[in-house]
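Weekly puzzle thread! Below is a chain. First person to post its structure in token form gets bragging rights.
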Amino acid sequence: MPQTPHVEQHFTAGESVRDVVIGMADGLTVPFALAAGLSGAVQQAGIIVTAGLAEIAAGSIAMGLGGYLAAKSDAEHYATEERREHQEIKEIPREEMKEVADIFREYGLSDDELKPVVEAMTKRPKQWVDFMMRFELGLERPDPKRARISATVIASAYVAGGLVPLAPYMLIGNSHTALIVSVIVTLIALIIFGLVKGRYTGARPLRSAMQTTITGGLAATAAFLIARAIS
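Winning reply:
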């Protein structure tokens, strides 16, 4: 009897989604707060648009640079720990073998079962180090392109998010009317963003949308009140 092939579907783009969330969340809140805060003091929407675009440019560069440096730091940390593990398996192999045995013992293997596994591991130094990096230190080897990708994704998401609350000011000349439209558009964008995020991360879309809207709304409100108080 023919059987349907088993196909496992796992989401493996967690880092990219994280970068999009970071960039989009800030992009939807910070430019909105700036534009909303200026709306109380400036009547001309053109001035708000100019200030908003300048903020989006500066914010995207800063956020992208932050993502780049964070990814670089992760790669440097991994490389440092990897060198330390290579040194340890050469200088204190007995201790490292004991650590391997302890790890397998946590998975229910008996001493008789894990002995040949540990001995086989010691014959493969590279795989031994990779094993210790993952299961002892909980570190995954970073993608060499991760820093550039992270910077690009975060910066792009920030720009995309920042243009949403700023778009009404580009289309409407009156800043007070544009503010009302911007609030509505931003809330809708947060809901859609939450639904999409939930869909791709495997979370409940409606719950994700609610969390994103509430969190983003509170952040935007707090930023707006601060900007309004300063202006």
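Puzzle host: Confirmed. Bonus trivia for everyone else. The radius of gyration is 25 Å.
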